[in-house]
TrEMBL record:
Keywords: Repeat
UniProt lineage: Eukaryota, Metazoa, Chordata, Craniata, Vertebrata
Gene3D superfamilies reported in the protein's UniProt record: Leucine-rich Repeat Variant
Record carries keyword Repeat: yes
The keyword Repeat belongs to this UniProt entry's keyword annotation: yes
GO cellular component, as recorded: cytoplasm
GO molecular function: protein phosphatase regulator activity
The name this protein goes by in its record: PP4R1 phosphatase
InterPro entries: ARM-like, ARM-type_fold, HEAT, HEAT_type_2, PP2A_Regulatory_Subunit_A
Listed Pfam families: HEAT
Region annotation (Disordered) ranges: 245-270
Biased composition (Low complexity): 245-260
Amino acid sequence: EPTVRTELMEQIPPIAIFLQESQPTFPAAFFEYLMPIVVRYLTDVNNQVRKAGQEALLILLEQDLVAQSDIENKVCPILLDLSAPDSDDEYKVEAVNIICKMASMLSRTTVEHMLLPRFCELCSDGKLFQVRKICAANFGDICNAVGQEATERLLIPKFFELCCDSVWGMRKACAECFMAVSYTTSPEVRRSQLSPLFISLISDTCRWVRQAAFQSLGPFISTFANPSSAGLYIREDGTLSIRPSAQDVSSSSCQPSSNSTVMSPSAGAA
């Protein structure tokens, strides 16, 4: 029964946490018995079971409970199969979604060598606009996961394609994550490539795209600032923040010295 398999998936993460805390007693139980079930349920015929399996996998990755070898040898191959060009549409949409969500939880080497080539292919998927939409919405996270070199060499050309997509929702998603993409690139790429691209979005024929671009204008401009003089920096969670100057801190000892968040790169016209 699908409901039984779904319930089982919901119990996997707490069981895995228990096993991790009791490793002397159960040294390999999770890797031998539970992880294969999670992987198998990613391809279950029932979509609710698959969704539960995907959620369980993300929790396990968040808690750092999955071994690197399992990620590379079991999880990634399944996701690559599900996101292949000839894969079922529903499976492909789910696979690209899970790839984007898990990218920030994996090592840069794993993402760049195993998932990035497929992500670039999916950005140009001419069959399903839903696939391209997921890629566009998560583009900044992928850039952050692989770093500047891979972003400029492989991802920026794909970003140009998505910013010129015939579906306005794609262009709007690109406008919303523009700051995150810009922050990952060099100043020269920002000036010579991304600035003209942003102008095209802010002049788009669709008002929803223009609105999203105008809302991202300030955050995009902030990526040109020198962090040491402007006090702007990106926190680990991807939010743009202001670091108080030493003078401000010393002159207002009664004020809290915590940083103030200005804008999240993924925040759009919600």
